[in-house]
Amino acid sequence: MTPETGPQPGEDVGARPKRATIEDVARLAGVSRQTVSRAVNDKPEIDSETKRRVLAAAQTLNYRPSRFARGLIRQDTITLGLVISDIGNPFFPELASGVLRAAQARDWQVVLYDTGDDSERELRTLTSLADQADVGAGFLRSAAGLTHAQRLGVPFAVLDAGWGNGRSPGVAIDFAAGVRQAVEHLAARGHRRIGMLDGASNPLDARRVSFLTAARESGLDADESRIENAACSMEGGTAALHRLLDRRPDTTAVFAYNDIMAVGALRALRARGARVPEDCAVVGFDGVPLGELVEPPITSVYVDIQRMGELAVDAAAALLAGRAPKPVVLEPVLRVRSSS
């Protein structure tokens, strides 16, 4: 197992480090389980020296009282911690819908965490999840998050945001196939100078790499100079397209990192008095319903997001049972609409 790939099919994930239990602390401190509970919960019926010894043992073992010990949840309930990066992005409510449906079918409950797409907040979130959930699933910014979860002893199903190349335990998207469909569609419509709005702002992100590869293979004028980094939001898409067209006004089509950024691109084009798709075509990624509600409706690389959520729960269940599930890869499909 490596931090980049996580457990592999057939690998024994039972070797993952286990969290210290209340029994471990009691054994090290030489006291009863009940005494540990009184010490960590700051109960008065314990002498100061014993309390000091118990807390020192708890610190040595990095022990944290479980949610069961705190009476927050029935002990026979499985809790899945779902980690997302931006609840304001319509992709994530779609995903959560699929997760909730699959979790309810198993009589699980779900706790939702929003990291705000911030690396430090993500690590803090995973630490909190380790206390509050039995298993995790969701989007992580990099392998560092997965490594952190594994160190905490938390089984975690990764919903691949582009850094794991589909090898992490969980559910991935075939970004290369999806982006290729978008680029080839634009090339077939006669576009030779295509730009990209990159919400990941990472030279190694799968969507960016796939865009450059597909453009090169199609013989298009699309290189790093036609990629504009942007905040992954509607406002980010609007600002990024203005910057791109200011730098490269000959751009006749743009591929957006996701649909919400594509909507922002439409706003920028409307503000500039440009016609879509006659002056500049727009293609997004994800296929969220929002893209059908704007004018013109957005051509998008569609991903079955709710199905992704359901598969994430399946992967989480396998990890919880001590198995390393084979990663599932979803195949996107281009849905052509009026924006291109």
Count of DSSP H/I helices: 12
The number of E-state strands comes to 12
Helix content: 40-55%
Number of domains: 3
Going by CATH, the architecture of the largest domain would be 3-Layer(aba) Sandwich
What integer value in Å does the Rg equal?
24 Å
What characterizes the major β-sheet? 6 strands, parallel
Estimated share of beta-strand residues: 15-25%
Dominant shape: elongated
Q: What distance separates the N and C termini? A: 44 Å
Give the SSE string: HHHEHEHEHEEHEHEHEHEHEHEE
Mean pLDDT: 86
Low-confidence stretches: 1-16, 68-75
The secondary structure category is alpha/beta
Strand order of the largest sheet: 2-1-3-4-5-11
CATH class of the largest domain, named: Alpha Beta
CATH topology of the largest domain: Rossmann fold
The named CATH superfamily of the largest domain: Response regulator
